[in-house]
Design a protein that fits this description.
Order of helices and strands: EEEHEEEEHHEHEHE
Distance between the termini: 43 Å
Structural class: alpha+beta
Shape: globular
Number of helices: 5
């Protein structure tokens, strides 16, 4: 299979496209045919050796993706071969096949593309933690989202809308990205579009 390999730490230019053996799932794991993988800031930090988790070299980066279940490890009964899923992994998503824990896989919603599924978990979970656990956002409170056109920013705008924040203020660095935030913002949203 083709995979992105990090065999030395540095900026993304150190990454290589290589051929590797397809991994086999162990007990409690699934082998996923990766159809889309998201690039997140932790991936960049990991390749640079600056993230809190430091996998041994060489490794394939990528912490979230979406694809189809290709094989089941022993004891896996909650998924089926061919089933479209969203999954997270400590690394390995930047490859044609990746192994993930079955308990970390969720069904890809029918109306989502693989790209939407791959980009869901890190942004949505980070936004939820920030707004609910840390910020304790309440209905009718004002929400300010910096970087509202990025993955986490859009997730924060959508979650704020769901939680009843009003109004929502959005800031975006580049005007060309304004349409992204406008697509997910509530009608009451204001911002430097």
């Amino acid at each position: 299979m083709r995979a992105i390999l990090c065999d030395r730490l540095g900026d993304p230019s150190v990454l290589k496209l290589v051929e590797l053996p397809t991994p086999a799932p162990k007990a409690g794991e699934v082998l996923v045919r990766v159809r889309a993988a998201a690039l997140n800031f932790p991936d960049v930090l990991t390749v640079a050796g600056q993230y809190q988790r430091k996998p041994p070299l060489p490794f394939t980066p990528g912490i979230e993706g979406a694809g189809e279940v290709a094989a089941l490890g022993e004891g896996v009964s909650n998924l089926n071969p061919g089933q479209p899923i969203i999954f997270g992994s400590r690394s390995g998503c930047f490859a044609e096949y990746a192994v993930a824990r079955a308990v970390d896989a969720i069904a890809l919603p029918n109306d989502w593309s693989f790209a939407e599924g791959a980009a869901y978990q890190v942004g949505a979970k980070t936004a939820y933690h920030a707004l609910v656990h840390r910020g304790r956002l309440q209905p009718r409170e004002v929400l300010l989202v910096h970087g509202a056109s990025g993955g986490m920013g859009m997730a924060a705008v959508q979650l704020g809308k769901h939680l009843g924040a009003a109004p929502t203020w959005c800031s975006i660095r580049w005007a060309a990205r304004c349409w992204r935030a406008r697509c997910v913002a509530p009608p009451s949203a204001r911002g430097c579009w």
